[in-house]
Structure formats: C-alpha cells, structure tokens
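Q: What does the predicted 3D structure of phenylalanine--tRNA ligase look like?
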Amino acid sequence: MVVIKENKDDLIHEIGINYYSKLSDFAGIIGYSIEEENNEVKLEFNPDRPDLFSFYALKSNMKIFYDGNYRIKPLFEKSDKLIRVDNSVKSERPYVMSFVARGKPLGNYYSHIIDYQEKLHETIGKSRKKMAIGIHDLDNISPPFLFTMRDKKTLEFTTYDNFHGTAREILEKHDKGKQYRQLISSDTMVPVILDSKEDVMSMPPIINGLKSKIGNNTSKLFFDITGTDYNAVLSAFYLFAYEMSYIGYEVLIPDADRNTINYDWRKVEITHKEITKLMGLEPDNTVILLRKMGYRCEVTSGGYRVDVPGNRIDVMGPVDIIEDIAKAYGYGRIPARPLKTSGTGVPYTPNEDENIIKGILTSINYQEVRSFILNSEDFYRKTGYSGDVIITNPKSLEYSVIRDKLYPGIISLLAINKRRKLPLKIFEIGQVVVSGNQESHLCVLYNNSKAAYSDIYAVLEYLLARTINAGAKVLQGNYNEIISGRGGDIVYENTTLGIIGEMDPSILVDFGIQNPVAFMEINLDKLRNIIEK
C-alpha cells in the first residue's frame, strides 16, 4: 500500500476547499481509503494507481471527473535538450530518458518534488535498482549532455551536499554511496552524466553533483531517468512529467525516441461486446464516462477507440479501461445477476471427512485453532525436526522451515493464552511435511490443572468410535515430548496412526506453561484410508 498525507490546513490551501470536500466521494469511485487524525489527512492507495500518488494529481483528476475539464490538447511541448548515450554505458544502465520542466521558482514545491522522487525510487524503481531519477537546475549546466562511463579512481567531483572526492571515495565514504554502490556492477568504472563543459551532473543511481543542484529559486529543471528496466524508466518518465504539469509547469520532452513519445495517448480498441461481457451492460453515456476518467475517446463502428495518457501505466488493455467505465458508472448501479456455471460442484472428499471430525470434536466442547505453517528450526529443538523443507532465503529466521507436526504450534498458542480460564480444550487440522512428504494431521490438546493421559485417551476412543466404529491400541514408546510411561503410539491393525500422551514438563517450561498438557496427534490420511476400507 502507498500512503500520501498532508496537514489539513495546508491541503485545503493547496487544492481548495471544493476539491477537499470531494475527497471522500472520489475515494468511493477510485478505491482508496481516507483518514483524518490530529489535523492530518492520510490517503492509502492500492499500488495499481501510481498516477494518483499525490494530492496535485488527485486534484487534476477530480477537475476532469467533476468539472468536465477533459484532456483535449497534448500536455507536452518538444524539447531540444536531450542526453547523448555513449555505448560504454549500455551494459551498466542501458535505458535513459529525459525532459525539461519550466515555470515559476519552485518555492514550496521543492520539498514536494523531492518527496515524489523518493516515492518513485522506492515503488517503481525498487530502491533505485530498476530506475533512478536525477533533477538538475538547467540554468547552471550547459547542454548537450552525455551519459557515459568514467574511471572511478580519476573521476572527481563535488556532490550536491558538498562532499568532494573521487568517485571511489564517494562510493566508499558517502552515505548514499555506501547505500547504493552495489547497484554499479563494474569494479573500475562508474556511470556519469556530464554537461558540455565536462562538469558532473550526476553519477546514476548514486548521487547528483553540486553544480546542477536545485533549490527553491530554480525555475528550469532538467530530469534524467536512467535504469536497467525499460518499463520502469518509461513509467517514471511519464509519472514525473505529468506530476510537474499538475503543479503548473510547462513540460518539454525530446522528440528523439518515437517509442517514448507514442506511449502518451496510445490507442486501445474496445468493443461493445467486451463491455457488455465484463459489466453486464453498456452504459448509454460510455464516451462521457471514459472522458471523466481521463481518457480521450471516439466512437468506432464496433465500439470505441480510446487514447490512454502516458501516466496511466496501469492500463495494459481493454479490461483495465472497462473497469474504469464501471467505476465512473458506479458499481452500485450495475444490477446483480446469478452466475452461470458449467456444471454442479460436488464436495471434496477430504474436506468432508475433516468437517465430520470437526463436528465430532466440537460436540464435546473442543475449539478449533490455527497455528503458523512456518516456524524456526529452533522451535523444534526439543522434539526434533524431520520435515526436510527449509527456506533458503527467509525474510526472518523465525519463519524458515515448514512444520512437520502440529502440537508445537498449538503449545505456542497456549503460551499466548495463559490467562485464559482453564480447562483449555483445543484442536487443529492442518498440513505438515514429514521427510519431504505432505500429510494431513489432527492434533487434539487438553490443558488443565490435573490434565492426564486418561483425559485425552477418552477423546481418542470417542473419535475412533464415531469414525471407524472401533478402538485402537496404544503401544508404549519413547518420545522426548511425552513423559516416560505416560503415552506412546496409536496403532490400529498394524497401522501406526500417531502418538498420544502427557506432554513432558521441560517443554511446557520452555513455553512458560504451568499446568499439565495431554495431547494426541494423528495422521488423518491414514485414518481416512481406514474409513474408506
């Protein structure tokens, strides 16, 4: 999720009370959440609408939707300011785009575009790995510009925050260098953008130079977008270009890359049949609805030809456009219809068996719980781990192996619920992996001040009587988790179904549980085979 927030008074000043009052209504159309707390307004978006990740973009789109301020003319002029790309840099960061924005001095917009730049770095750019943006004061640099490679030992410049040194020293000592130096693959060379006087504008994706540093008085800005992923660079290019136009700047883009230019107002054909199939109907005012959502549109013999603005990077085809038609029309206005199916479903047998077992256990006041499928290897140190499924690159060591048994997870739930009134009678049905094989298990656990083997054995007898109409033997076994002589293997006709017994106190101490626990864990796949026979 992406969050944008602003002080309420400042927001009203920026977008006006009229559009501020429409934020909640527009949220119901677009699909974002809005909160207001301590005079701060916070909007939370799904990642599918990056073109709206600022209040200026929201205001522009609300103007279109509510005021009929449709987009007719192109937003951008042509620019002769472009970056020449040397072949040497194509193996490092092969994709480069640029544009110019000019208008009044930045003033309060300065902090906004810096924040917006970082938002794009983190979302579209994946922390600058796929894409990085440089912003420069065009009045302080001399075009034409060159994107090339230079030796990190000999290239020397001053960064925007007055750190002077070679490129190597910047990478090793500057905070930005240490943070992003792994994004440069070459051991000896660094990518660099130079102006015609050989002054360093930036060392993508690390840091900008001092000469081109922007400030509150900057009125002509040059943007470079470099990266390793073409789609990320293209997306950032249009998102930022549109953002600058939203805050009132004239945007000029070079005419050198026809693919880039043609992405703005790209054409998508949609048919009447497609709209009816997805929405269930076709609104009479489809053209108006499309224009209200920021598209250009004209009627064709079979449907509509829709022009998609460049910053709508979420639009990949007709389905996305038809979704916007439905949003503008209002989902609540679309009549409900019964779904047509190709056949009649039948119950999934294993689920039906599990539901029967759940009914049996709940009838004797046992409550179903769910525990984590992933845990740490250390979690199983007392009982031993035999799942043989270890995650090689886990987000956390606490979730690095797939469970091979259920009862450790349920014991951890007891530890969380120590203050609950006794007795605690709980069970879980879930999947485990034993020696690389997936199995379905049932674990039943009884926790009370005088919990004993007889308590859980009574549950076992009742369960087997209701499922296979028979009893089972318990053969004494040696398990670290069971008190010696107080449990063992559950056996039915030479098939070992699971284990049963009183939990060893040392395990309970590890989890901070003071009262005794009796439990059993059964392989439901084996029990199901017996039932089928």
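A (community wiki): The structure tokens above were generated from the sequence. The longest strand covers residues 424-434. DSSP finds 17 helices and 27 strands in the chain.
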